[in-house]
Specification:
The chain folds into two domains: 9-248, Metallo-beta-lactamase, Chain A, CATH 3.60.15.10; 262-409, 3-Layer(aba) Sandwich (Rossmann fold), CATH 3.40.50. The longest helix is centred in the last third of the chain and has 18 residues, at 389-406. It has 13 helices and 21 strands. It has helices at 62-72, 88-91, 94-100, 113-120, 193-204, 208-218, 238-248, 254-257, 274-287, 304-312, 330-338, 361-371, 389-406; strands at residues 9-12, 15-17, 20-22, 27-28, 32-33, 38-40, 43-47, 50-54, 78-82, 105-109, 129-132, 137-140, 143-149, 159-163, 168-172, 225-228, 262-268, 292-298, 316-320, 348-355, 381-384. The structure holds MU-OXO-diiron. MU-OXO-diiron (FEO) is lined by residues 85, 87, 89-90, 154-155, 173, 229-230. In the N-terminal section; belongs to the zinc metallo-hydrolase group 3 family.
């Protein structure tokens, strides 16, 4: 069922879906796989005093959008254009829409203004706009509308718009997924559970604490219909998707929920066993600190994705890598590159490794950890060739120092001028 819909679809009283279908898309935003394509959902809300447009579509689908819009409204009836999120897949048709709709006034979040200015450039001076925040209410075209600011789901600008008389939440990217099916409704389209969770994992997951704040605002509204900007419209049990966002944002180890233990993960790769011996010593040293649960993983023995799940709920990460051709080894980089999908800010980080000539791997890993906004409390440990017993003691000290830092027992740091 992937043929293009010829007509707009009325999804609630006076509310039409006027979006576009993109069944052939296979990669979204360079990183997301979209085996089912996607949709760019936009809506028109008719009231006694005119029409409100909620979001638009990607630019190349503009004509499809305008064709549907023209079937439910004349351009001079449009009183408001609400932009829940200003990424180009939802604002591609905005410049042309504003040129065609002479009475349209823009509504977007306070944080969206910079992007709106970049989108419309000098033309913005020709239009009126209102910046919205949570709790703002108004009558637009005679329909009661309120706004819910949902920053970082997944851009700073994002908001949801609530049509109060229909209890309909226009949720932007939130509760969306990349799934294209012209039957539109969640109780009629194919099984999209995988797409919903995949989308959350790659788009919303780094912002879990913001997701929980947003869910706290949305649940009391008890929406009876959720109309996201991508994928199926959620009319069957819409609150289950809100609850799902809460569940997906609450994954912690049992002890961490109670705040009894910190989790420190030690990952390593080893060519000749030297970095492996270092890893075991780092693990042993860290394990001697009470209140820290330490886990040791050889990256040769696992896939990257499950490790990313582990890392998300950990408090500290230490990576061991030999230096090969002046670099850390690929499995280490694979894990480090995958961390963009989770929140790493504030976690503790460390690096160690054996080397033969130059030993760049350790400082390169440390730079990456700092780039991920992690704190690196101790200088990484590099050992030439195989560690001696004395050097293994240094590894145990290093692990102990990291673990003590994790539980707030670290000794004051003495800065060596040679390190500056
Ligand atoms: Fe669907 Fe963040 O754009």
């Amino acid at each position: 069922m992937l043929a293009k819909l010829p007509e707009p679809v009325e999804i609630a009283g006076g509310v039409h879906w006027i979006g576009a279908l993109d069944p052939d898309l296979r990669t979204f935003d360079l990183i997301l796989k979209t085996a089912n394509g996607t949709t760019y959902n936009a809506y028109a809300v008719r009231g006694p005093e005119g029409v409100v447009v909620v979001d638009t579509v990607k630019e190349e689908f503009s004509e499809e959008f305008f064709t549907r819009l023209e079937q439910v409204a004349d351009y001079d009836e449009i009183r408001a254009v609400i932009l829940n999120h200003l990424e180009p897949d939802h604002t591609g048709a905005v410049p042309e829409l504003m040129r065609r709709a002479p009475h349209a006034h823009i509504f977007c979040s306070v944080r969206a203004l910079k992007v709106l200015t970049a989108l419309l450039k000098d033309e913005l001076d020709n239009y009126g706009y209102t910046l919205t925040d949570t709790g703002d209410r108004c009558s637009l075209s005679g329909r009661p509308i309120s706004f819910v600011n949902t920053p970082y789901l997944h851009w700073p600008d994002t908001q949801c718009t609530f049509l109060e008389d229909e209890k309909l939440l226009f949720s932007g990217d939130v509760f969306g997924c990349h799934f294209c099916d012209d039957r539109l409704y969640n109780d009629r389209v194919g099984d999209f559970r995988f797409s919903f969770e995949y989308y959350f994992k790659h788009i919303m997951r780094p912002f879990k604490r913001w997701v929980l704040q947003a869910v706290d605002k949305i649940e009391p509204l008890a929406p009876e219909l959720i109309a996201p900007a991508h994928g199926p419209i959620l009319r069957d049990n819409p609150l289950s998707y809100v609850r799902s966002y809460r569940t997906l944002s609450n994954s912690y180890l049992p002890n961490e929920v109670e705040g009894r233990e910190k989790s420190l993960l030690v990952f390593y790769m080893s060519a000749y066993g030297a970095t492996a011996d270092m890893a075991k010593a780092v693990h042993d040293g860290a394990s001697s600190v009470e209140g820290v649960r330490v886990s040791l993983y050889d990256l040769q023995g696992g896939e990257t994705e499950p490790f990313v799940d582990l890392i998300e709920s950990a408090d500290g990460l230490v990576f061991g890598s030999p230096t090969v051709n002046g670099d850390a080894v690929k499995p280490v980089w694979d894990v480090l590159a995958s961390l963009i999908s989770i929140e790493t800010r504030g976690k503790l980080g460390g690096a160690f490794g054996s080397y033969g000539w130059s030993g760049e791997a350790v400082p390169m890993i440390e730079d990456r950890l700092r780039g991920l906004k992690m704190r690196v409390p101790a200088k990484g440990l590099r050992i030439k060739f195989h560690p001696t017993d004395k050097e293994l003691d240094d590894c145990r000290d290093y692990g102990r120092t990291l673990a003590e830092s994790l539980v707030g027992k670290a000794k004051p740091k003495v800065v060596d001028f040679a390190d500056l």
